[in-house]
Amino acid sequence: MRADNSSTICVCRSVRELGIAIGFLVPPVLVPNVEDRDKLAYHISIMFYIIGGVATLLLILVFIVFKEKPKYPPSRAQSLSYALTSPDASYLGSIAQLFKNLNFVLLVITYGLNAGAFYALSTLLNRMVIWHYPGEEVNAGRIGLTIVIAGMLGAVISGIWLDRSKTYKETTLVVYFMTLVGMVVYTFTLNLGHLWVVFITAGTMGFFMTGYLPLGFEFAVELTYPESEGISSGLLNISAQVFGIIFTISQGQIIDNYGTKPGNIFLCLFLTLGAALTAFIKPDLRRQKANKETPENKLQEEEEESNTSKVPTAVSEDHL
């Protein structure tokens, strides 16, 4: 039975970002910027038919291929998690238990701030690029593709680093801070008039911002073990969606009234708050502790406790 492989998990979760990358690249190609509404509706319908076909195929594959759980637990921590899970445990009870965990609550907030900023940036990217570079709809999609592909690379590298170092908090904090730095650089270089500069700064920002997303899931599993990973991941996603809606609406209004720079500064302020809150999260790595608790370690600890308990008796007999 092997230990949890963070790099493998980060790779699997970063595959989700591949769909986002395709979403940046394909729609500008399928739906050109035309004035005729009938032609525009035709191209949009073609895009929706393609999306519906792909989604249906994936649904069929889920029913055929996916299983509830593997035949054998992938790690000792997962095996213990199965054993510790009570059949009478309720969903709401698990959520209430998670919200008593202050470290997880802080992570939910900080993850929501980062992912919400990414969602807002992704949604409004086309508008911001067209604002400064009219007629560059296709390149706007390519910039979004660059952000996500760079983030997938960042997620893989972060996963490999976590496998070797197990420094979950330190890695998360560094990536969060670099996300803030990348966002600041992107904000003040967007209007320079050079599209290649935007590609570089957006890619650098995406390397950390998108790469942070699977890191947040991994850190949440460590903090909430042995609670269900599905519940902790679901709460992170809810936080991301809520902050994403708030940030998208707010930044859109700011861009319409004041321009792109104030809108991006708005996101920078909340990323600063997220980085500060991340520093207060304590690295209580419960899953890693469970993986280290092998039968040999437990036997050694019991022997040490037994020897320790015998020492006072020997001393007292010599004294007598």
Task: Please supply descriptive tags for the structure shown above.
single chain, 320 residues, mainly alpha, 12 helices, disordered C terminus
In short:
The chain has 320 residues and is mainly alpha-helical. The chain is built from 12 helices and no strands. It is globular, with a radius of gyration of 24 Å.
| Helix/sheet category | mainly alpha
| N→C terminal distance | 51 Å
Count of strand segments: 0
Report helical residue fraction. over 70%
Largest sheet composition: none
What is the global morphology?
Answer: globular
Radius of gyration: 24 Å
Q: How many helical elements?
A: 12
Strand content: under 5%
Q: Taking all residues together, what is the mean pLDDT?
A: 80
The succession of helices and strands, N to C, reads: HHHHHHHHHHHH
Low-confidence stretches: 309-320
Main location: membrane
Transmembrane segments: 40-66, 102-121, 141-161, 173-189, 195-215, 235-255, 261-281
Keywords: Cell membrane, Endoplasmic reticulum, Membrane, Mitochondrion, Transmembrane, Transmembrane helix, Transport
Pfam family, one: MFS_1
Q: How would you describe what is shown here?
A:
The radius of gyration is 24 Å and the shape is globular. 32% of the residues are buried. Helices cover 82% and strands 0% of the residues. The chain is mainly α. It has twelve helices and no strands. The N and C termini lie far apart (51 Å). Helix 1 packs antiparallel against helix 8, helix 5 runs antiparallel to helix 6 and helix 7 runs antiparallel to helix 10 (260-278). The model is unreliable at 309-320 (pLDDT under 50).
